[in-house]
Structures are given as C-alpha cells and as structure tokens.
Amino acid sequence: MGTAADVAGAAAPGIAIETLVRLPENKDILSCIQCGTCAATCPYGESMKYPPRRIIAMLRAGLIDQVLASDSLLLCVGCYACMAKCPRGIRLTEVLLPAVKEQVFVHLAETPAELQKALENTLRYGNPMGEPSRKRAAWVKTAGVPIRILAADPRPTDVLWIVECQNSYHPRGQDISRATARLFHALEIDFAILGNEEKCAGECARLLGEAGLFETLMDYNIALFQKYRFNRIVTSGAHAYDAFRHLYPAMGFDRPVDHTTPFLARSLDRLRPRLTRKLNYRVTYHDACCLGRHNGFYEEPRRLLGAIPGVKLVEMVHNRVNSVCCGGGGGGMWLDTYFKSRGVERLSERRVKEALATGADVLAVSCPYEVSRFEDALKVLGGDSRMVVKDVVELLDEAMETGQ
Amino acid sequence: MNITVLLRMVPDVVEELEIAPDGRRLDDEMLRMILSESDDHALEQALLLKECLGGSVTAIAPEASEVNDALYTAVAKGADRAMKLTGLAAGGSTTVLARAFARVLSGGAGVVPADLILTGVQAHDDLDGLLAPLVAHHLGLPHVSIVTRVQVAADRKTAIVAREYPGGVHGEFEVPLPAVLGIQAAEKPPRYVPVAKVRAAMKSARIEELDQAAWEVPPAQIEVLRMDKPEVSSHAEMIEGTPDAMALRVCEILDARGLL
Fold first, then answer.
1. Does B105 reside within a domain?
2. Is the ipTM of this complex over 0.85?
3. Burial of A355 from C-beta contacts in 10 A (0-12 / 13-18 / 19+)
4. Which residues of chain A have pLDDT under 70?
C-alpha cells in the first residue's frame, strides 16, 4: 500500500530540475550571456520576480528552489517572445520554461480557482469550459453545409479538420467554425471532423506546466487519430497546431499538419475567384504567437486579407515577430482574475489599444482565443463601437457571395 | 488524529440524464459518475486537519463507475489509504449505505478506528443529508452537520465545529470525539492535484476492497414509484419586431396587468 508520502516522494513528473541543464537541448543554457533581452521583450517581464534571465542565473547558482517557491512564472503566457529574441538561440519557451513551470506548478500553494476549474474540466470533459462532450459538434447543424462526422461515417477523408475547444463551444468560435466549413465546402475539400470524440490538444496545459494533463490528452488524441484514415490534419486551433507539429511527434505521431490560415493561403488561387463581395474595411492583423513567432506564418494571413476586394491592411506598432500576445497562452486564458489581483495590465487590453491606434475598423485574428479576449478588451476600453474582431476565415467567408 | 472520509459517487449533471426503461431510476447506460461535491470538501477538510495535526486520512467509497479515479485522486492529494465497499447492489438507498459504512467502521476489516468521520453534508441522491446522522446513529456517536470549520482541542478529546445557519449566522458546537461531521464547505476550496501525481498514485497505491457480498442487506424502507423529467409548463414570450412595435407590446403587457 502506497502512502501519500510515497506519492509525494515519487520521481517528480517530467524533467527534474537538477538534470535540466544536463539535457542536450538545454546545454545552451550554459551559453547564456545574461544580456536580459528575454526579460525586456517579455510582455510581463517587468512584473515577474524571476524573468527568464534571472531563472537561468538562479539555475546556474543552484538557487532554483527560490524560483520554484514563487508563483511569478504564472505570469508567463508562453508567447515565444523571449525565445524569438534570444541571441544564443536558447529554447526558452519550448524547453526551459515548461520544465521550470512544471515544478512551480507542483509547488504552488494554491491554484487560482478559474485555472483549477479549467484544468479539471479539460481532464474530465476534454474542454476547459466544462461543457459535455456530447455537445461538442452541436454547431454543425447550423453551418448550412454538410459536415461529415467520422464516428457516424468513418470512410477515409483527405482532411481531418480538428475544430478545437473554443471553436466548438464558444458562440463566437462557432461563427468561425461555420465560416471555415463554408470555405472548405466552396473549395470542394474532402474533409471530416471527429465530432464528439474530439478532445483538447493540451498545448496550454503543457506550457502552463501541467505536463501530466498534456500527456493524458496527447495519448487519447494519438489513439483516436489511429482509428481513422485521413491524409492530413488541418486545425483551427493555433495552439493545437503547435502541439501537433512540435510535441506529438515525440510520441510517434507523424501525419502532415496544417493550420486553417496557412492552409487556405495555399489554396488562394482557387479561392480568389470566389472572393467577389467588396468589403470596405480597414483591417489590422494581430499575429498569433503560435502561428507567427513559433511557426513563421506571418505573410499567409496577410495574403488572404489582401485578396479580399476593398480591404485595406494597416499594421500595428508591434507586428510580426514583435507582436504582443493576447495574454491567453500558457494558461493565461484562465488567469485574468489572477493577473488583475497582481495589478498587472491585461495583455488583451494593451494589444487592443495598439489596434485602435491604427484607426482600423476590423481587428483580424487567426487564433481561437483572440476573438473573445479582444472583444472583451474592446468593451472594457469602450472601443467596441469603433472596431470589431473577426477571424481571417470569417472575413473570407463574408467576401464570398455564398457566405454570411 | 485518524480521520475517515466517506465518499460517494453521484450522477454528473453536466452529462445527459435519462430515465431507465422501468421509469423508476436513472439510466446507468447514459450516466457518468463524479465525486459528490460536498464529499470533495469533506476530503479537503480531512487533509487540512491532517496537515495541521498529523495522523492519517482514510477514504472509503462504495463501488461505482469511476470510483477508482476518485480514490486515486484522494491518495494523490494526500490520503493515506483508499478503500472500496464492493458487493453492494448498485443504486442502494442512503439508509443502506449508512448501514454499510457503519458496519465497516464499527470494527474488523482492518479499518483504523477513527477520531473523526467526515462526509459531505448532502449529495444529489441524499438532499436530506441523512448519511452523516444515520452513520452516527448506527455507531452511537455524536453528530453535527452543515459544518464549515473544525478545530480539534489540544487533548484531541473534543472539537469545536462551526455550523452554518440561514442569514449568515454561525453556531459553534463543542463535540466529543470520535464524532461524525457532515461537511458543508472545507476551510479552503478543494485543492488541485496535478494529473502526473494521480498517475503516480495509480502506479504506487492500492485500493483495498471490503467485500460486502456476504452481508444481508436490510430491505429498503422507501421505494421509488416513478421518476420523471421536469415538464415544461410555460414559455417566455419573445417580443420581436421594430423597436416601436416592441415598445408598444411591452406597454400592452404592463397595461393588461394594471401596472401602467
């Protein structure tokens, strides 16, 4: 019979801190020149007790326990800004920070309530909102085009479309899903979805430091993918895309993966003739962290927007690699109350101020977290009469005569 | 300080609830079971007391779907032992469950005598909150329910417990130990346990089974005759049309009720 002490004393999940610097992918930590670019570029760097530079210094000095005892790393939104700017190419967001956060998470005296609920929901229901899995594909009925669900019709498909949580359940996310379905239909893409069998890809859990939850979801999803025959995955989730491309391969997953925005950009020649409705919008595009900084899709969404008749594209002060995170990554989606209690500005508000300053009337996005975050921020800042938030696929759908 | 926590799995109301073909119970096929929320608070209160006073926490639950997950989670959170009552007919009433718990708690079966027995004040299938008082009755122990705070005296012979009353009023009771407490809310919200710790508990811990098959279950005193889903009695009227037309309709409704 094991006791609680046995469990607590069992090998710490994931990578132990002592071995961290000995990992080949982390040997770069030793090459850190302590320039502090990471801390300066971090959107919450000035509010963090231990920004990345200090974490590395503490690790080297054998003082990592002090870092683990602090909850300052909960402010890390996994936005890849530090990693993109590191002159030594240290894999901060990919390797070092999740490993340290995993230990921070285990040591956390009290998990912020909203975050705890989201994590428990994700484990139990496969989505952070705590919605029943049987309602995951409820939006399909209102798409206006047929959508095949593999459980009911398991014939092979070219594209397995992973809709992801936010776009399955959130009312604005469902708008994006309906638009995506109509675009796929217009392009005559052979696609199908997993419907109620689909579960969260788990990327945020990993970047937050909840590695066990991430692994549980990854195991489930990889087993589910093996049930069906398909050529490639296309997902609406920027974070899901990131997980499928960079994390799932470690567990033997080896299928081609794409995100809807670059996927549609590749089909632009076929899509362009359908974009006949003139939209007289002044649009500014927000680069999602996972798509932009981590995967380099800067031009694809802009090409799509540029193909819409009447759209005038304007840039925010911070764009492409310098984009400011919406604050939703790495668990930030469920830490707004915590951020507020720490007296730090919500990043979605910081970003929306930049968007409003461009004079644009549409803020275009391509990550499911952003629509609700930016719409909330616009309301808080009183900018919702001047600007609306639209996913790139919603604008494309609107520009099709058959769209909404 | 040895604390025993009585846990129950209840239907997860996030999932769809269907009535079984016999019309007298929920359809098991459609059910997902989850740890009763106030039992989770009872477990948390037990863990807080153990952290402060030392001793052990034993979690006991009747066999149910997904009960192993709940028991391993309890161990991952800090419970020392996890036990399961097997061989009981599913869907038994609270009175039967109370007797079964009392039976194992009254000795034998390797159960450590408890200084405190905690359980949730209510459950979906025990809205009257009968489990704690019935267990106390069968064991001949004192009982307090709707408890929101537990303070054990230095000599461990008594505890001061706070009980909630309507209107924000609290009462304090001194209760001799051992005692049975129905927990309304733990002093802190139930803690989060990382999934990796639950996975580790699944590997290292063992759920002890207390077989009740040989026990002659007392006959039920209350029988469910029929179970129905709530019937929709009336719908809200959605007022549609132009703002003027809608305003007119609102005025008509108010006028008809003599409110204008």
1. yes
2. yes
3. buried
4. 1-23, 25-26, 403-404
